[in-house]
Amino acid sequence: MKPFSYVKAADEKQALAALGRERGKVLPLAGGMDLVSLLKDRIATPDRVVNVKGLDGTITATPDGGLRIGAAVRLVDLMAHAAVTSQYAALAEAASETGTPQIRNLGTVGGNLMQRPRCWYFRNEEFPCLKKGGARCYSVDGENQFHAILGGGPCHIVHPSSLAVPLVAFGAKLRIAGPRGEKEVLAEEFYELPERNLYGETALRPDELLTHVILPPAKSMKSATYEVRFRSSHDWPIAFASVALSIANGTVSDARVVLGAVAPIPWRSPEAEAALKGQPANEATAIKAAEAALAGATPMTQNAYKVQIAKTALKRAILHAAGVSA
């Protein structure tokens, strides 16, 4: 591990003052699970680490009836919050499925949203992969059973955040603070494909911080997240889905569908949404939506199995949100 200086920021102002403009030279530290492993493996080699646990760690109601969630909120507190569990079930379910109890007790909302890809080529310092400035993506000709089946290329990572997927489904915004002031960005627009941002995954600049998540009013929306993993213990999902549905008299009037662990970003599917709108909330409709969502999948040599798993995850998320038994 490369030596670095350490700054403990008491609040947002101090944290911003400690950041720098050069990518990778100054990195924030929250729960630490992702950053510490990156430091140990020498994937991250910052000159300075800034402790940002002093950022807002509260969940409060917004004037319009939504929620404002601080980046320093722990996952265990998010999944147990009454307003989250009652109004934003897909988010509570995603938080409860993240990692282990130990990770959920330390991990934060901001840290989960900002974690780096789990691709084993990226995480192994012995591989000078494309994302680290190398000449190629090793997954194309190598072990690729957990890589992207949608939106892949030239780097075939899958997005690692569990919380980002339901946040996109809810149409959430992310508050970003920096030396140029503050702004709110749609979660859907915050994450960027490798073809646009090869060496990063988000629109966040090195001297900016993600400080809050702002959820719009849930109203009568029904939502759910469904994950499929090899192991029910500590493991990352093979594929999962989050849906947010408006249902009136048994018919879907509006829908937002987002897939996780199948693309380099949380993958919203307008095709699945179109297949749901105006249709009865039943198993036949859920199957059609799942087929539509994965129609454009382009699996690699070892991950074609993920297509069916993603279909099943989406079908079950839809039925769970609609309160229908499969």
Explain what you see.
By secondary structure, this protein is of the alpha+beta class. Helices cover 30% and strands 21% of the residues. The chain has 13 helices and twelve strands. The chain has helices at 12-18, 33-40, 75-80, 82-87, 89-96, 101-106, 109-114, 120-123, 164-170, 187-190, 270-276, 283-293, 305-322; strands at 5-8, 26-29, 48-51, 59-61, 67-70, 173-178, 181-186, 209-215, 222-228, 239-248, 251-260, 267-268. Strands 4-5-8-6-7 form a five-stranded antiparallel β-sheet. It has a four-stranded antiparallel β-sheet with strand order 9-10-11-12. A hairpin with a 2-residue loop joins strand 6 and strand 7. Helix 11 (270-276) runs antiparallel to helix 12 and helix 12 runs antiparallel to helix 13 (305-322). The longest helix is centred in the last third of the chain and has 18 residues, at 305-322. The N and C termini lie far apart (50 Å). The model has no long low-confidence stretch (mean pLDDT 95).
